Amino acid sequence: MMGTLLQLYPFLFLFLFLPILNTVLSQPQQLFYSGFNHIPGTNLSLTGIAKIDDKNGILKLTNETSRLIGHAFYPIPFQFKNNNGSRTFSFSSSFAIAIVPEYPKLGGHGLAFTISASMDTLKHALPSQYLGLLNSTNIGNFSNHLFAVEFDTVQDFEFGDINDNHVGININNLVSNVSCNASYYAEGEGEGRLENLNLKGGKPIMVWVDYDSVKSVISVTLSPSSTKPKKPTLSYSLDLSPIFHERMYVGFSASTGLLASSHYVLGWSFKINGTAPTLDLDSLPKLPGPKKKQTPMVVGVSVATSFIALFSLFLGFYLFWKIKNADVIEPWEHEIGPHRYSMIHKVC
Ligand SMILES: *[C@@H]1O[C@H](CO)[C@@H](O)[C@H](O)[C@H]1NC(C)=O
Ligand SMILES: *[C@@H]1O[C@H](CO)[C@@H](O)[C@H](O)[C@H]1NC(C)=O
Ligand SMILES: *[C@@H]1O[C@H](CO)[C@@H](O)[C@H](O)[C@H]1NC(C)=O
Ligand SMILES: *[C@@H]1O[C@H](CO)[C@@H](O)[C@H](O)[C@H]1NC(C)=O
Ligand SMILES: *[C@@H]1O[C@H](CO)[C@@H](O)[C@H](O)[C@H]1NC(C)=O
Ligand SMILES: *[C@@H]1O[C@H](CO)[C@@H](O)[C@H](O)[C@H]1NC(C)=O
Ligand SMILES: *[C@@H]1O[C@H](CO)[C@@H](O)[C@H](O)[C@H]1NC(C)=O
Ligand SMILES: *[C@@H]1O[C@H](CO)[C@@H](O)[C@H](O)[C@H]1NC(C)=O
After folding, report:
1. Other beta carbons less than 10 A from residue 197's beta carbon
2. CB of 153 closer than 6 A to ligand 7?
3. Span 3-16, pLDDT tens digits
4. Which terminus of the chain, N or C, has fewer Cβ atoms within 10 Å?
5. Ligand 4 touching residue 138 (CB < 6 A)
């Protein structure tokens, strides 16, 4: 009798613990990538042009070729709610990004930390100003169930962008619900002083995205160092429960357009119901140095030429767009009004 039980023991063990193991594998609660070299468990799912450099462990979402999309998502969706009808749990993520543009002052287009109910939406997304998130038919549609924090290096008038160096919170749209200059609160008295950051400066930038389920506040904090500033760059009051499904995919999207940048993620952590594990910029992989050396004269002339050419092109497009859209009120503006007031709590 005893012998039989002992023989059965390994099977009993498996039988008892398999469901738990299964839960752990299918419902992760935390991610920690200090570089993307030695990834325990499941790998990220990379689509489009995205790849991980095996030598240095850097996740490169796009290179400097035009009209590319790169996606890197955790392949298993996270559980963000107890059921479809309940409140979205708190979550927290931190990551280090770097954007290296083809031409020093001209980025193209941007990167977004993304939480999406469906990978299908992303599969059908467009590059350029769409950031690999949406396309021209599903943009603004509430049934996308898409949340993104964009790091945008192009000013798209179409989407009301404030400048070519901003951070925004987007819900099912490329028009940000709220956006701010890329900036951070440097250490100092009180909450510190606001300093500008250059997203396309080619240097690593640390980002923290936190959602407080009790207060219904999303905050986005930037810094050029590993220390999280006391005050976020951007915070916005919104209950994410109507936007989130029970299970959502978490990852990054980036795109290039006429102008292009290399978009990198150097490290990433994520956690539900708690603070994401701390990342240290010093222990993350280092960006490769500048590849080619051109004489300043050549660079100067070619940048000036492309700048003039692009400027004329943009001016042409802008004037065309201005004339075409003169005094046209979009259908949705009738519904919600062009200047809808809501409980927006914004800090920049
Ligand atoms: C992760 O990727 C590596 C190399 O690409 C591969 O050898 C390994 O089997 C993958 N692991 C899983 C769990 O998919
Ligand atoms: C970007 O990647 C694609 C595909 O790997 C390649 O064909 C292209 O040459 C790359 N562009 C640059 C600028 O390296
Ligand atoms: C939650 O909603 C999604 C999308 O409508 C659906 O696919 C899923 O089955 C729902 N889950 C439950 C538990 O009802
Ligand atoms: C836009 O994306 C949706 C998926 O969200 C897809 O069904 C639709 O066909 C796409 N539209 C275009 C024009 O690609
Ligand atoms: C939004 O998307 C849903 C599902 O794809 C579709 O049935 C609906 O018609 C779309 N709404 C608009 C306004 O395009
Ligand atoms: C902001 O988010 C809400 C979702 O709560 C959405 O319905 C609304 O259209 C968004 N506003 C803008 C300006 O994008
Ligand atoms: C935004 O940044 C620009 C420089 O990029 C600066 O001139 C402007 O004053 C900043 N705006 C605010 C509100 O800080
Ligand atoms: C998060 O916290 C809520 C209660 O606040 C709990 O119901 C839920 O199971 C927790 N989820 C995870 C993934 O820890």
Report:
1. 17
2. no
3. 444 444 434 333 33
4. N
5. yes
